[in-house]
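Changelog note: in this version the structure field was regenerated for every chain. One regenerated record is shown below for reference.
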Amino acid sequence: PDFTHPVIAWHPEGDVLSIFEEKKGEIILNLYDSKLKSKNSRPLMNLEKVLSCSYNIKGDKIIFSGVNNSQTDIYLYSVLGSSQKQVTDDIYDDYDPKFIPNSNEIIFSSNRGGLKSKKANVPNKNTFDLYKINFRNRKLTQITNTPDFNEKQPQPLSKFNYQYLCDQNGALIVRLDHDHEGRLLKHMIDT
């Protein structure tokens, strides 16, 4: 059995539960309204699987990591328009996308191995760093660069502050903050 499904996310107002599931070879987004006890089902196109998802603060968009042709990329879904747009489209694996508050950016974990070359590098299968991408102009920025360990499951706290899991010394939580001059400060949090 596939224990990766269903993938779920609560709407920011807490009344609607979004449930991504596989049915007869299709990916279906079910929006279940817990107050009205009703379900609205919407098929998603050109996807084999949804791995994780998250709402923006307004609740009108969902960002998700999806698989198409065995390639994992980030997609933006407009809840009101029932439309999806591919944000990344490359050979790299992009996981755990989250909206960064008060911005047009998404933070995510990827095995792209840096941004130095314009030519696509072979994905680093064993190491994941954090990146952010502006979903309007597609400007990509690398946040962490640690070739010996992984950063995964980022959680933005504000526009300039993030927490994530890191396997540097086993499993631990790390917090990144920007100081008043824009420098990045790293804090380890014992678990």
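Spot check on this record: The longest strand covers residues 16-23. The chain has no helices and 16 strands.
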